[in-house]
Amino acid sequence: MVLKIRLARFGKRNAPFYNIVVAQARSARNSKPLEVLGTYDPIPKPPPSGEGKPIKDIKLDTSRAKYWLGVGAQPSEPAWRLLSMIGLLEPKYHGQVGGQKQEDEVR
What we know:
It contains three helices and seven strands. By secondary structure, the chain is α+β, with helices and mostly antiparallel strands. A five-stranded mixed beta sheet has the order 4-3-2-1-5.
């Protein structure tokens, strides 16, 4: 059984809201997950103090996320990015910068 940590979309049109879930890799995006780890709201909200940059809300049960990563669940690309923002995973760096491979820039 291959497990994935991925995002399941909820919300209305033009107002997405995602659950961060653990599901079997072959199941549909919005099918019933094994476990819901947290939520992600990609629409920026103004900070409580009213000053500064808008904040995108990420809520995650880190102990359960560590458990699922420990038993071999593979995060999807968007889930990897969110988990790296929280500090559970190392950020992925893609080999291409501006359409060119990194090796070309060294020369």
